[in-house]
Amino acid sequence: MQKKTVLITGATDGIGRALAKIYQSRGDRLVLVGRRALDTLNDALYTKNTYCRADLSQDKCADRVCEFLNAQKIDAIDLAIQNAGTGYFGTIAEQSAESIREIVAVNLMAPLRLTHTLIPYLKRTNGKLVLIGSITHAFPCPDYAVYAASKEALNTLGRNLQIEGDINVQIIHPGATRTGLHRKIGMNNEKTKKFPSAERVAQKITQAIDGRRFVATIGWQNAWARFLGRYCEGMVNAMVRTT
Ligand SMILES: NC(=O)c1ccc[n+]([C@@H]2O[C@H](COP(=O)([O-])OP(=O)(O)OC[C@H]3O[C@@H](n4cnc5c(N)ncnc54)[C@H](OP(=O)(O)O)[C@@H]3O)[C@@H](O)[C@H]2O)c1
Questions:
Q1: Looking at residue 197, what DSSP letter applies?
Q2: Residue having the nearest C-alpha atom to atom 17 of ligand 1
Q3: Could you tell me if the CB of 99 is within 6 A of ligand 1?
Q4: Could you give the domains of the chain?
Q5: pLDDT tens digit string along 59-106?
């Protein structure tokens, strides 16, 4: 199989790191985007040739990624997986303005900025852009409303990009996954113990990427939940209100 160039954002933890390991095992050339310093990442995955440090909450994040690609003499990308994500657990009233800005910046503005920047790179290979959403986009999510709203907007972005037709786009919606995300956003970690592992979910994500579906939900229970959230809104809102 021909070696591909695969860019993954949020590649330093959870699903992103598990995806990076899968594409590394396939022998692909990796571009791993993360906010941490390279010398704090103790894994052979991350080297000065594979790791691009960029804080995706910042306006200039796409310029930083572009500089890295230029320095590596990469002018074409086969697969760009926009996976980085962040959130906050609590009501909007309790949330700080900075936390709201950061979530919208990382979960929506960065994918938009990076998509804009990466379109020419993807066109050169007839490559694919993958947006990692969440089934939460289809539900009311009190206590992580800004996160869910950012994922709904991401879904809309992908849907419209697909219709515009300049590049191949896929939106993948995982359900609850056992990663560090819940701890980072201040959620009770006990609840997450029963969730599937990042490695298992990443494996299913790569299967979806190898397939042709424009929108893919990971796991049939999640697909059902997403369907109900989308098309039985009144009933689902009432159920969430009473829980
Ligand atoms: N876990 C779930 O239950 C779940 C469910 C549905 C969808 N998802 C989605 O799956 C994706 C991956 O989430 P995960 O669960 O794997 O979370 P995770 O383990 O926290 O990984 C998130 C990744 O995004 C990076 N990131 C966060 N803010 C960043 C910033 N400002 N600049 C650059 N990178 C940044 C993190 O960096 P650090 O390592 O420095 O924190 C990390 O590499 C997200 O889009 C999330 O919304 C997750």
A1: B
A2: 181
A3: no
A4: 5-242 (3.40.50.720)
A5: 999 999 999 999 999 999 999 999 999 999 999 999 999 999 999 999
Given pLDDT bands bounded at 50, 70 and 90, which one contains residue 240?
confident
Chain segment 28-41, per-residue pLDDT in tens: 999 999 999 999 99
Residues 6+ apart with CB under 8 A from 81: 6, 7, 8, 9, 16, 19, 130, 132, 209
CA distances from 2 to 5, 26, 50, 111 (A): 10, 10, 18, 27
Testing ligand 1's pocket by substitution, the residue of 30, 56, 86, 100 carrying the most ligand atoms inside 8 A of its CB is 86
Q: Does residue 1 surpass a pLDDT of 70?
A: no
Per the CB < 8 A criterion, the answer to whether 104 and 152 are in contact is no
- How many residues are present in the chain? 243
Using most ligand atoms within 8 A of CB, pick from 181, 193, 205 the residue to mutate for ligand 1: 181
Rg value, the chain, Cα: 17
- 12 C-beta closer than 6 A to ligand 1: yes
Q: Is 219 in the pocket of ligand 1 (CB under 6 A)?
A: no
- Inter-residue contact 77 to 118 (CB < 8 Å): yes
Angle at 4 between CA 204 and CA 133, to 5 degrees: 35
Type of residue numbered 219: G
Confirm or reject: Cβ of 143 under 6 Å from ligand 1: no
